[in-house]
Specification:
By secondary structure, this protein is an alpha+beta fold. The protein is 17% helix and 45% strand. It has a 16-stranded antiparallel barrel. The longest helix is centred in the first third of the chain and has 25 residues. The chain starts with a helix and ends with a strand.
């Protein structure tokens, strides 16, 4: 086989590879460049006489052009698939060629309509209804320096009657940098959701109901500023955090610092079966594997002003059946306000069953007692259905809730408002409501 035929084979192979790898528009460009090469080769042959036209210099030039064509095609396909430097994969992302720097952008948008009915309200309407922009959040996450250094920044642009930050309208939420230390260990520094309760550790876009349970929010640590050490293995996970204060975000350093002598929060979980990833959402979709997760949390905080302190314990179990699920949690506090000691406690039980691949029936009962006289107990039943248009990326939830006991101001301020319960008049109970919510998390 002479050199001319060899070059022809190279060009033909290039054309075949290009046609298999690129889309229609890319093929047009590649074929155009190859056609130009063929024309140049034909011209050289006619001017140089037969098979002796190809000098070493000209051969090198042709090889360089072919290499450029393939490199150009490679650059175009780099925007597709797993090796993409930009695109969408659980969020819109950008990445450097070596993978050492990346950024993923995510959005959570929740729009809710609620109708609420109360009795004996001395001021305002006995019936309230309306729309609200429950959450509008953007987050930026990725890695820096190398894949072992990760970060996250999340900001709520609009926020109504929240459970995480108790009424803030705009707030900086997660803002941290984490370092993978190897062998399952990692260190996180900044502001983050504290490791304590299974439900509240879930992202708001991954919930089974329109919001976190009232009891779960009341007893959970929510956010804090400080550092957290975590360890994860195939079956065990442990996290421990040291922070300024429990239930505190964006705390500034001033002449009152520290507000607490100490504040710690921790959680340990044992995965009996299943995968860690499946427990990142509250649902168990059809086709998912069976999974059982058992967890326990501990936190403590002691103020430096009035010798008040709180020590908290929780235990929970989550069972995924692949098309149905059940989650239960118990909470207990030892609260010393410097004058007296109280032992608030509560529990939640919730679950869901998929009647089709996209539709789920859900129910939740929750009870809590603050062990503080007039502040009262909270007892509520919530049930409804979810329609998952694209699992948790796009879903609609419809809930009906009934509160058996009076919703006191304390319960309203520190948990109930997130589910759109309103404070009852003294001695009144039997409040009920209907909710519909669209949630988009992408």
């Amino acid at each position: 086989m002479n050199q001319t035929r060899s070059i022809g084979c190279i060009l033909a192979s290039t054309l075949a590879i290009g046609g298999a790898a690129f889309g229609a528009e890319q093929n047009i460009d590649v074929l155009s460049q190859i056609a130009e090469l063929k024309a140049e080769i034909a011209s050289l042959k006619s001017n140089s006489g037969g098979d002796q036209w190809l000098t070493e210099q000209r051969a090198a030039e042709v090889r360089g052009i072919v290499t450029d064509v393939l490199a150009d095609a490679g650059n175009r396909t780099s925007l597709q698939g797993a090796a993409a430097s930009s695109g969408y994969n659980g969020g819109f992302f950008l990445s450097s060629a070596d993978g050492n720097y990346s950024m993923k952008v995510n959005v959570l948008e929740q729009i809710r309509w609620t109708y609420n009915d109360r009795s004996g309200v001395p001021a305002g309407n006995a019936n309230n209804w309306g729309f609200e922009n429950k959450r509008t959040r953007m987050s930026w996450s990725g890695n820096i320096v190398d894949p072992s250094w990760t970060y996250k920044v999340a900001y709520y642009f609009a926020y109504a009657n929240d459970l995480e930050f108790f009424g803030a309208t705009t707030v900086l939420a997660d803002v941290f940098v984490a370092k993978d230390l190897g062998n399952g260990f990692s260190l996180t520094v900044g502001q983050f959701c504290l490791p304590y309760c299974a439900e509240v550790c879930l992202d708001a876009g991954m919930l089974q109901f329109n919001d976190y349970s009232t009891v779960g929010s009341m007893f959970s640590d929510n956010y804090g500023q400080g550092l957290m050490l975590t360890y994860t293995s195939d079956a065990f996970a442990v996290a421990a955090a040291y922070v300024n204060s429990l239930n505190n975000a964006n705390e500034a350093f001033d002449n009152n610092s520290p507000n607490d002598d100490f504040a710690f929060s921790g959680r340990a979980t044992y995965k009996c079966s299943g995968t860690w990833a499946q427990f990142c959402s509250a649902q168990s979709f059809k086709g998912e594997e069976m999974g059982v997760l058992i967890g326990a949390g501990f936190s403590c905080e002691e103020a430096n002003a009035n010798d008040s302190s709180v020590y908290s314990l929780t235990g929970d179990v989550t069972i995924d059946f692949g098309g149905a699920n059940l989650m239960a949690a118990y909470f207990w506090d030892n609260l010393d306000d410097g004058v007296a000691t109280f032992n608030p406690y509560g529990f939640t039980v919730q679950g869901g069953v998929f009647v089709t691949d996209d539709c789920e029936i859900v129910a939740r009962y929750e009870f809590g007692s603050l062990d503080a006289g007039s502040t009262g107990e909270f007892s509520a039943l919530t049930f409804g259905a979810n329609w998952y248009m694209a699992q948790n990326t796009a879903k609609f939830g419809a809930n009906f809730g009934y509160a058996f006991d009076e919703v006191t101001e304390v319960w309203y301020e520190f948990g109930a408002q997130g589910n759109n319960w309103l404070a009852d008049a003294a001695g009144e109970d039997g409040q009920w409501m209907i909710q519909g919510q669209l949630s988009f998390s992408f």
